[in-house]
Amino acid sequence: SQDQFNATSYNAMAMAIISLQTFTGMWINAFIASVLCIAWVKKKNFNSNEKILLVLGCCRFWYLCITWVYSLLSIIYPQCFYVYPMPQLFASIQSFLNFSNLWVSACLCIFYCIKIANFRHIFFIYLKVKIDRVVPWLLLGSVLLSLVIGIFIYSVIDEALWSNHNSTTQGNFWKLSIKMDEHIFPVFFLAGFGFATTFMAVISSALLLLFSLWRHKCKMQTDSGKNISMDAHVKAMKSILSFFVVYSINFTCSILTLVYATKKVNPVAFLILVFQYAFPGVHSLILIFSNPKLEKTLRRTLSCVKCKVCMR
Prior knowledge:
Layout: H1 2-43, H2 48-76, H3 86-116, H4 122-169, H5 176-219, H6 228-260, H7 267-290, H8 292-311
Helix pairs in contact: 1-2, 1-7, 2-3, 2-4, 2-7, 3-4, 3-5, 3-6, 4-5, 5-6, 6-7, 7-8
């Protein structure tokens, strides 16, 4: 029928767009992880910034991979999600990787702020001195907290599906969506809290660094020479403002995803999904061009690929 043909065409177009974004994002994050791993093996040393970027690249690569598999199965073989424990397993793994991605990237913004901003408060000075020792614990805490949330989401969805199975076997089909919403509400609340926490961390880092830049500029107005600290402030500010813009879009899409989660697929929900798939790739691309080592390696790689293509 015509409706079935339209649905098939829509699914094919959606999968093509999602696949293009996913594989691009996976390539970008795999590039970050591989370059940092090679540098780690060569120099046997790893600074805090590189540790955060490596964990972030790995989290985003696997998040995009798992999410793409989920989208593919949802379109070509949705029956597999009726098999235990596929729905709760995918939701749990996606949640773990997504929250790891968000919190590790928030840690990166906090790291830039503490490392570059200049404040005389004793607590800030203490953090600046100890930040290299704190970073591994921040990363470990982010991953462990994301793991706890993933396990919690698995148990909540498992309980919701079990409750709905019992209700439908008794013939109460009209209660299915109501019961599901009641059980899934804690997941929505937890997801919204997690999104808001990471967004506030990025906003706070951007505002603190902006304030530090303004104070430093006022002090250096009489100095006509080039100041290294000023350049570091400006460069970090550009990066964090870029993060802020991308995070604002991602935060809005994440909240809208919670709004449309209980509704049927529609063009608005698909548009939100497209923006969410673009976030890991776009943000990682900004990170590459904010890092001289990664940018230089990327340009060299692209030039080699271009030369090989031209030779053919």
